[in-house]
Amino acid sequence: FNKSQKQYKVVGTAQGNYTALQQKIMAAAKSRNLPTIAQTTYTTVPDYVKNGFISPLDQYMLKGDDKMSSSDLKDIYPAFLSSSKYQGKYYSVPFSKSTRILFYNEALMKKYNIAKPTSWEDIKKDADKLKADGIAAIGFDKSFDMEFEGLARQAGNPLVSADPLKANLDSKKTLTAANFIMDMVNSGEAKTAGEDIYGDKNFTAGKTLFYAGSSAGITNMKQNAPKDFKWGTMPLPSYKGKKATELAGNDIVLFKSASSDKQKGAWAFMKYLLSEKETSKWAQLTGYVPLRKSAVKSADFKKYLSANPTSQAAVDSLGFGFQSTAFIGFSEYRNDLLNAVDAMLTKHEKPDQALKTLQGQTETIIKTNK
Known about the structure:
By secondary structure, the chain is α/β, with parallel strands linked by helices. The chain has helices at about 20-30, 45-50, 60, 70-75, 80, 105-110, 120-130, 145-155, 170-185, 200-205, 220-225, 260-275, 275-285, 295, 300-305, 310-315, 330-345, 350-370, and strands spanning about 35-40, 85, 90, 90-105, 135-140, 160, 165, 190, 210-215, 230-235, 245-255, 320.
């Protein structure tokens, strides 16, 4: 960006991880020393708006000389654009995004004569062929919260609905999804990563046939899987006849404290990152997904996919991607959600009890922040 024009200069500062980034932003806000822009998960936007940290982007994004055209906006995948909006205004732009995908072990599929699953129900059936040899059909990360949210959506409701804001954590449909996963875990058909945090170790060690993980983990898999380990990727299968995959990653926000000139420069940089050429380039260099449909269709990206076929599944998943409903107090809710999953896994709490507790906690968060 700095080489592409002479008017603005972006100076980047890196933080180690999401948590460190969040702590840095909150500390900078207290000391009134915020940068012009920052990466953040879109779920922090409601809290930032409540605290008066960030400016809506509409005045730059939808108006003025440097706005985005309607064809630009239509070109960005709808799930990315809709999660940038809060209370009818754009407060962020998408940047580093990943999808949940299914990794598969080619040798085990061949050995046990197992085809690529089209549904989660198929995976459950495949488990019978593997049980005697102590192999789980599917591996999850330490927490299966993202797969759980996907299955709940496929069963018929989001964990938290957006309009009006409503918790559905103890609904019949949510419970169906939780029971489906926990039945597989309890029977040994599914395996969680435990202290490993991510399920790739169990997967590359041949302890699970499939692994439901982030497309952002493909680069890591290429680097760390044994050289003779043959694996592939595919979109997550359907459940109850519907497809869904949770999208994750960072957006970019603009802080209110920045001067007018810096805000204009920040928007120029955001728009540059959203361009077809740059989102394709960023995806190829990082393993994240392109934000635009035109970038996915570009000759350059098609060439990249033919050389890196394991990246195809993430792109194929974008059409049915979703993002969690963001609301004030989301980080507290997410901690409660992770605790509920942990209670089911390690404390052997029944799903209906764990989700009843989570429903109460979430209702309190929503009510407190009205």
